[in-house]
Amino acid sequence: MAGAVSALFLLDIKGRVLVWRDYRGDxxxxxxxxxxxxxxxxxxxxxxxxxxxxxxxVSYMFVQxxxxxxxxxxxxxxxxxxxxLFLHRVIDVFKHYFEELxxxxxxxxxxxxxxxxxxxxxxxxxxxxxxxxLSEFIKTDAYRMEVTQRPPMAVTNAVSWxxxxxxxxxxxxxxxxxxxxxxxxxxxxxxxxxxxxxALKMRTYLSGMPECKLGLNDRVxxxxxxxxxxxxxxxxxxxxxxxxxxxxxxxxxxxISFIPPDGSFDLMTYRLNTQVKPLIWVxxxxxxxxxxxxxxxxKARSQFKERSTATNVEIELPVxxxxxxxxxxxxxxxxxxxxxKDALVWKIKSFPGGKEYMLRAEFSLPSITAxxxxxxxxxxxxxxxxxxxxxxxxxxxxxxxxxxxxxYQALPWVRYITMAGEYELRLI
Length: 428
What we know:
CATH topology of the largest domain: Beta-Lactamase
Radius of gyration: 27 Å
CATH architecture of the largest domain: 2-Layer Sandwich
Helix content: 10-25%
Number of strands: 25
Oligomer: single chain
Distance between the termini: 51 Å
Largest sheet: 9 strands, mixed
Organism: Dioscorea alata
Number of helices: 8
Structural class: alpha+beta
Strand order of the largest sheet: 13-15-11-10-25-23-18-21-20
Protein name: AP-1 complex subunit mu protein
């Protein structure tokens, strides 16, 4: 980092100071008011969302979470990216302690907040930002806090995300490959946006300081090893790793090597921007019979292979806000009117690949309408589902090795699941 920050402020949504910590003595609490004034002035500008504000020799860097602004003030030329990353880590730590970071949780835990800020930053330089490590020596019980005299091993260890001395009777690793499909289809049936966001989610219950190695069907790796891909390899793009992964090793030979944190964490995330065929296709036809009755006919079709099955399918069909007396019949599953959503919700517990189901519903409408009725809003059809043992990208875990100096045997468990993210089909 090129320079340190002078102070850290936690402000409410109106810019009032909730907590502030002075680290270098070269700014005052009045900087918060100057920052908020500049922020309000910038609201009309095209760049008003910039997370950096400069005024009279002081740089302000900030993020907003819920109803709280986290802001640093610096007179030195600080690395903005590092400071903004630090502020996001502060949010993660507070959420670990208080469940959710809000103005109320800060007011209820002033003592703990100040103690955490003292440990996370020293003389304006970020220090320890791992919530699990901080919780080893800053413990909260209701509003009381105990501080041990001896810092945890991880504070002085190069592996800051894991403590030494972890022990389990049964050593296991659970790896979930989760892909979310985001699709937006216009009223003509054309896909106008589609992508897949994937994550490798791990839960580790391993003793000691294990070394893990993970292999994927990565095209670059397989071709470098001289193996034929035969269409089963994938191109990984937009990859983000947890800090435990040795990036230099990955860049050299595409090996994912790491000492994992204890418990749950996201090892890797990725995105595929290739065109994705909708896994569940929904067509809806709306017919108005006179002014007092509306009929909706819906066809849902699964567009994946028969050996896979979608579970917990939920299709949300918009209906007029003044509709009543619903009557729905479906060839599979059940449908119910949800007036709080202005929608008919069609639930299908199990939807095998290559199947097509139908639904027909009728609603009554008021016979008298306002002369100047507001134009009807056309909400999209929304779809939710999960498909276990299936991925859109075709990603595969080729191996997951766990090596620890004591030589114990660890059981790795891997599963795949695809689910709907922002999955919408427009009616108009």
